[in-house]
C-alpha cells in the first residue's frame, strides 16, 4: 500500500500554531476560584432560645436557673404569669440553646436558611425537641431572621441500670430551613464606577495575572492591580449590565502561579506538609538517640529477732543511660519535591524528630522554604 504524503504547513501557519501552543497555560484556574468580589459576603447570626418537648433529657433546672428564668420570660410574653410565692417549676423537658446561622449574600426577606442548635446547659439530649421562635441577631444587634422548627439530631443513645450507650453527639442538632429572613443586608455591589476583587491569598504574581486576563478580555485599562491582594475593575453602572459583566469576568482563565515555598508543621500531631516549591540545598546531618531509663525497686529491711525494731520499706533506684552512636549523613541538593521527600526519608527519623531536624536545616540555610508551625 502506498503511504499518503503528509501535508506541508505554510511557514506562517506553523508560527501561529507554535504561538498558540506556547500561550496555553499548563494549569489554568478561573477568576472565581482565586478571587471574590469585595462586599459580597455572608454574615453571622446568633440567638438564644429554648428547645421544648424533650423526653426527660432537658436541663436540670436546679443547676441551670437560667432555663427556668427563660421559660418564665417566655410565658410572660404569652400573657401567663406565675402567682407570687410559687416555687420555681422543675423542668425536665426544656433545654436552653444557642442558635447560629449564616446569612448568605443577597438573601431577601421571606427566604429560608439552615440553622444550628447547640445546648449550653446540662441537657442530655436534644433529640425529639422543638425550637420555639428565636430571633437571630447580627453583629449590630438588629434582628435579621426568626428561627423555629424541629431539631434534627444525628445520633442516638440509651441508658438503663447504670449502663449507657451513645452514638454520635446528642447535645447539638440542625434545623434545615429553620429560619426565615426578616431583613436584607445591603451590599455595595452597585455603588461607584468600579468593583474590587479580593484574592483568596496574597500574591503579587496572581494579582498581575488577574488584571492582565481582564484587560485582554475587556480592553486595556479596565483592571488595575492595586496590591498583592486587590484588583480594581471598571464596571458598567446599570445593574443588569454589571451583573453580566461580573458573570463573564469570573469565567476568565488565569494561569496558576507557583506558590511560595512553605513547610507546614503540626507540632501536636507531628504532621509535616511540603508544597511543590520546596527545595533543599546540600547539607550534612548527624542524628542519634539518647535514652535514659530510671527503674525503682522496693527493698524491705527486716529487724533482727527480739530487737524491737520495725520493718522498713525503701526504694532502690537504678539509672541507665544509653546513647546510640550518631550517624553523619550528607543530603544532596534536591531541586524537586520528590527529591526532598526522598532525602528526608533517608534520615529514618520519627515525625517528632523531623520537626527539630527541619528547623535546624532551615537555621543552617539549607532549606529554601518558609517554616510555619501550627
From TrEMBL:
Residues 1-28 form the signal peptide. One of its GO terms (biological process) is bacterial-type flagellum-dependent cell motility. GO terms for molecular function: structural molecule activity. GO terms for cellular component: bacterial-type flagellum basal body, distal rod, P ring; outer membrane-bounded periplasmic space. Its main location: other. Keywords: Bacterial flagellum, Cell projection, Cilium, Flagellum, Signal. It is found in: Bacterial flagellum basal body. The basal body constitutes a major portion of the flagellar organelle and consists of four rings (L,P,S, and M) mounted on a central rod. Belongs to the FlgI family. Assembles around the rod to form the L-ring and probably protects the motor/basal body from shearing forces during rotation. This is Flagellar P-ring protein. It comes from Paenacidovorax caeni.
